[in-house]
Write a structure and sequence with these properties.
The protein is an all-alpha fold. The chain is built from 10 helices and no strands. α1 crosses α6, α4 runs parallel beside α7 and α6 crosses α8. It is globular, with a radius of gyration of 21 Å.
Amino acid sequence: MTRPRPRTRIQQKNRETILAAALDVFSQQGFRGATLDQISEAAGLSKPNLLYYFPSKEAIHAELLDNLLDIWLQPLRDLDPMGEPMTELLRYVRRKLDMSRDMPRESRLFANEVLQGAPRIGAQLNGPLKALVDEKAAVLQEWMDDGRLSAVPPQHLLFSIWALTQHYADFDMQVRAVLGPDHDPFDEAGAFLDTLFRRLLAPDRSRPPSP
C-alpha cells in the first residue's frame, strides 16, 4: 500500500490558513450561510487553490468539528476522580470559562452545529461525548453519595456549567452591551461562577453520607 506523501511546509500553512478563515466564516454565518467563496476570500486564496486542499465546504466543516470536539472535551476528561471534589469542579468551571474567552469562534461553531440538530456530529454526541459524561457523572454521584459535595443531579450540573460558561462566548455582544466598556466580563464571571458553584455544592455537614 502506497503511503500518502507528507505535506510540505507551504501545504500545511495553507491548510491552517483555510481552516482559520473557515472558522471565522462558519462561526459568523453558520454552516448553511457560509460559502466557499467567503472562505477563500477570508483565507486570501483563490477558490481553485482552496479546492486543492479541501474538496468541499462539508470537508472543511467536518475537519474543524473533529478537531474542536477533542479540544472541547479535554477539560472534562481531566476531572480527576482522586482529586478534592470542590477543587476539581471549580477548576473545570474555570477551564470552560477560559475556553469561552480564548476560543469564542469555536464555541459558536459548536453551538451552531447543535442548534441545527447536530447533523454532522450526532454520532459523536451519542457516542464518545455521552460515554464521557456518563463516566464523569458517576464520579460526581460518588462524591455526592460520600457527602463530599451537595447532592444535585450530576448531568444537570454539567449542563449548567456548559450553559453558564459558554454563554459568554455565544452571546458575547449581548454581555458586553449590558455590562458596558469598562467591565471585563470574564474577570467578573470567574468570581461569580466560583461563588455560585461553591455555594451550590458545599456539602451539608449536618447530614451523614449515604450508606
